[in-house]
Amino acid sequence: MKNIVMSQYRGVENEQWSAPDIGLYKMNTNAAMFDRKFGCAAVTRDHVGDVLVVSCEVTNGRIEVDVAEAVAARHGLHIAIEAGLNNLVLETDCMKLSFTKRNGNKVVHVLARSSVKY
Questions:
Q1: CA distance 47 to 22
Q2: Residue 18 domain-assigned (yes or no)
Q3: For all residues of the chain together, what is the average pLDDT?
């Protein structure tokens, strides 16, 4: 059974990535907007902080930022589930999904910005 949990915003004090509980995997996702395309990225780590899955992609077209963030979440979930990681906590810096400060989402932010190069 696949268990996917959206983490809750923890407030201003949560400015760095925090590990999930043992037995869970935390996925951070992000989107980056460019002129006529957008990038999506996801990083999934275990309770120790070891990176298990990383992905990024770029898509042509213009969409709303919140929609791009949702596409990034969907993209990341698809990749992680394909890799057999089912007990996931999803975290993003999009307040309409589930919010974490950018410093807690830094790796995936840089990856999303880099996706335009690939």
A1: 5
A2: no
A3: 83
